[in-house]
Structure formats: C-alpha cells, structure tokens
Design brief:
heterodimer, A: mainly beta, 4-stranded antiparallel β-sheet, 3-stranded antiparallel β-sheet, 8 strands, extended, B: 136 residues, mainly beta, Immunoglobulin-like
C-alpha cells in the first residue's frame, strides 16, 4: 500500500476505507492483482492522438527504469534503493519509515489503437511520463459527403 | 504541451458546482510519505514529492513547526481527458513539529527527482559531548 497519497480529509478517508473494503472483498479482482495503491501511483489520460500515462515515481535513476510494451500491455518496472541507514550501522535511529523501497512493477493494459512504435517516455521531477501514440488509422476523421 | 497543473481535469456539469468545488478543494492536499532518521548530529528527513518542480516547492519554518508544501505541475498535452487518477489533488502538504534542540537556522535542503532531503542539525549546545571528570 501507498498510504500517504490520500488527502487529509474525513470524506477522503471514508472513501479510502470503502475502497479498501471493496478491494478486500472483491470477488473478481483484476487478473494482475489489485489495481490501486501500488508504487508508483499512476494517472492515465488520453487525447484523440495519444494515451498519456503518468507514473509518480520519485527518486529513481532514469537508466534503471524499465518500460516495456508487449502486445498492448505496458509494464513499468524498476527498483528503488532504500535510503535508510542499514541496521548494522546502528548509529542512526529511524523515526518514520513510510517511503517505498525495493522492486516495483505496474502493469497497464492499453487500448488496441496504440501504435507500438510510437511510445516515448520522459522522466522529470520524479514523474515518469509515457506517451503512446494512437495509430494513424484510428484517428478521428471527417468523411466528406459526395 | 502546456505546463499546467492539470493533473486531473474532471468534467463538471455546471460552472457553479465547479467553482464551489474548487474553493472547497483549495485546502486539500496529499500527504507526502516521509522517512525520518536521527543520528548524533541531527535529523534527516526525506519526502517524496513527485511532480513538484523546484520553484513550486515551499519550505517554511515558524518557531517550532516545519511546513513542506508543493504544487504538482506536469506538462500534459492540451485537451487531455483524465480517465483514471490515483493522484487526484495536485498539491502536497505536511507539517512537522520540531523540538527545541534542533537548529532551524542551519537547515539544508536538497531536491532531486522529486525527493526532498532535509538535514536539520542539532544546536551546538545539544550535541553530545563527553564530560571530563576532574579529580582533585
């Protein structure tokens, strides 16, 4: 879980509780596991020309992030090193430990009209922005009436 | 591409609703996850603030409270319709109460790839020291 990315607001807390209850009792979850609450948090949007995926993954080395598109399934994987001092060090005390560390993987299935050759990704301010172009043939067009 | 804070644009039925909703949401913010560690020299705080650029990050120390604030701004193409959002509010805020032995005048901050690292040293007089025992 990624508990902190929820607003500090009683209704939001109730909404979260409700969502967690639903996830826990969901009789037909997604085949790739629970959708929400993983690391990184993901937003998806679209324009007529492209599908935009924003993965909020701060503190990564861009070279270590793996973005793969295989038969319409987009995978974002990588590893975030732990910044906490090791146990053996023993000199520092850990008071709060909320940030994610370790390996992560998120899988998003894209719509059929995405062009596998038109996918690009940038990493800025800790956000991985993936743009997947839609196929030319899937673009909306105006048909002239003869 | 336009550099707006439109992480999520929800379609609103009427403008009135949109406005009152906007006002109500101004105070809402996401709570960034943090790690806090302490060693003999001071406290190190790391906070995840993805999507916040350096000029939209605010750090304030007031007597004994530390406030971390940030606006999420992600360059998205014009006319993007959000279809699914886990980060639903483009703002982060978290407040910490500091303790007396920390030297707020000497806080140093580093911000890289959306991770803020703060080092809050302990005041001189609060540093651990060995006390020599005088034998008369």
């Amino acid at each position: 879980m990624y508990p902190s990315l929820f607003p500090r607001n009683v209704f939001a807390e109730l909404d979260r509780l409700q969502r967690e209850m639903r996830d826990a009792f969901d009789l037909s979850p997604s085949i790739r596991g629970l959708g929400r609450g993983g690391f990184p948090a993901v937003n998806v949007g679209g324009t007529p020309q492209s599908v935009e995926i924003l993965a909020f993954a701060p503190g990564l080395d861009p070279a270590s992030v793996e973005v793969k598109l295989d038969r319409g399934v987009l995978t974002i994987a990588g590893e975030r090193p732990a910044d906490l001092p090791s146990e053996e060090g023993g000199k520092a005390a850990v008071h709060i430990n909320e940030r994610f560390s370790g390996r992560f993987r998120r899988v998003i299935s894209l719509s059929d009209d995405v062009d596998p050759n038109g996918v690009s990704a940038t990493y800025r301010d800790g956000v991985l922005h993936i743009t997947a172009k839609r196929r030319e043939s899937a673009q909306p067009r105006r048909i002239n009436v003869q | 591409m336009n550099d707006t804070t439109a992480v999520e644009k929800r379609p609103q039925a009427s403008r009135e609703v949109a406005r009152s909703d906007e006002a109500g949401r101004r105070d809402e913010a996401l709570i960034p996850p943090v790690d806090v560690t302490e060693d003999s020299g001071g406290i190190t705080l790391r906070a995840d603030l993805p999507g916040v650029s350096k000029d939209r990050l605010g750090l304030h120390v007031e007597t004994d409270t530390l406030t971390i604030e940030g606006e999420v701004s992600v360059a998205t193409p014009e006319g993007m319709q959000a279809s699914y959002a886990e980060v639903s509010i483009p703002r982060f805020r978290r407040v910490f109460t500091l303790s007396k032995e920390l030297d707020t005048g000497k806080i140093s901050a580093e911000f890289k790839h959306g991770v803020l690292t703060l080092r809050i040293p302990k005041a001189e007089h609060a540093q651990p020291r060995k006390i020599d025992i005088q034998v008369s």
